[in-house]
Amino acid sequence: MSVRIQPEDFDVGAEVARLTKGASDIGAVVAFTGLCRDESGRLAALELEHYPGMAEAEITRITEQAEQRWPLKGLNVIHRHGRIAPGGNIVLVVAASAHRQAAFEAAEFVMDYLKTQAPFWKKEHLASGAAQEQAGWVEARDEDDAAAQRWRARHDAGQ
Amino acid sequence: MKIRYFAWVRERTGRADEDVTLPEGIDTIADLIGWLKTRGPEYEAAFENGSFVRAAIDQIHAAHDTPLGGAREIAFFPPMTGG
After folding, report:
1. Which of A116, A117, A137 is closest, CB to CB, to B7?
2. Rounded to an integer, what distance in angstroms lies between the CA atom of residue B24 and that of residue B21?
3. CA distances from A145 to A86, A92, A116, B76, B80 (A)
4. Complex ipTM, two decimals?
């Protein structure tokens, strides 16, 4: 299990290969990539501020919860910070397990918690010609809090 | 004690971090926010909607009624937008 916080881009294929190399008992690998949406050319870039130290610690706590809850063979997370171009990679979650249910669910769980708990903040830099008064800090979404809450409810129900 | 500020909380206070010595009677995050707001208009602006600002004590999320204890580092920031 690894958590990397870095400005550099990552290669999904290489990271999947890294997780599965040499393993003989992995039957399922799920790789989720979060990208910077372009919104029809409105965005020049997204800038991700983060809290060094806490970002690693918090994402590690989330992955440890996932490993306790599902039978995983591996779980790697990469989260970038700094300037991200439209279409660029932001976050990667790779989960491996013997059977697919654990990999699917663990990847979704990690993303739902990461969205609400990981100390990163997105600031929009708009392309010239876009309405500059709209530029600023992206706001958190209620849907993300609801998604995280559903995992708590399922856990309490024994799922 | 070190206090760190992030995103628009950092922009409004005008600083990324500072070292403070707390007066007597500051026991919880809420107490700390109340005290910070007395230190100038920039703090008033940052904590204008005080309950909306999130906090962490020694890099762990903390509700506003959490005691500061022997905390070394407190951080204040908006709801997160990672991922």
Report:
1. A137
2. 10
3. 25, 20, 6, 19, 10
4. 0.95
pLDDT digits (tens, 9 = 90+) for B14-48: 999 999 999 999 999 999 999 999 999 999 999 99
- Return the SS3 of A120: strand
Q: Does A139 touch chain B (CB under 8 A)?
A: yes
What is the tens place of the pLDDT at every residue in A75-117?
999 999 999 999 999 999 999 999 999 999 999 999 999 999 9
In one letter, which amino acid is A69?
R
Interface contact flag, B82 A123, Cβ < 8 Å: no
Does the CB of A77 have a partner CB in chain B at under 8 Å?
A: no
Mutate to test the interface with B, among A46, A47, A51, A115 (most CBs of B within 10 A): A51
The answer to whether the Cβ–Cβ distance between A90 and B80 falls below 8 Å is no
Which residue has 């026991």 as its token pair?
B27
A9 with A89: CB under 8 angstroms? yes
Contacts of A107 in chain B (CB under 8 A): none
Quickly list H helices, chain A. Answer: 12-20, 54-69, 100-117, 142-156
Q: Roughly how many angstroms between the first and final C-alpha of chain B, as a whole number?
A: 30
* Chain B partners within 8 Å of A90 (Cβ): 83
Q: Do B80 and A79 touch (CB under 8 A)?
A: no
pTM of the model: 0.93
Name the pairing type of β-strands B54-57 and B60-62: antiparallel
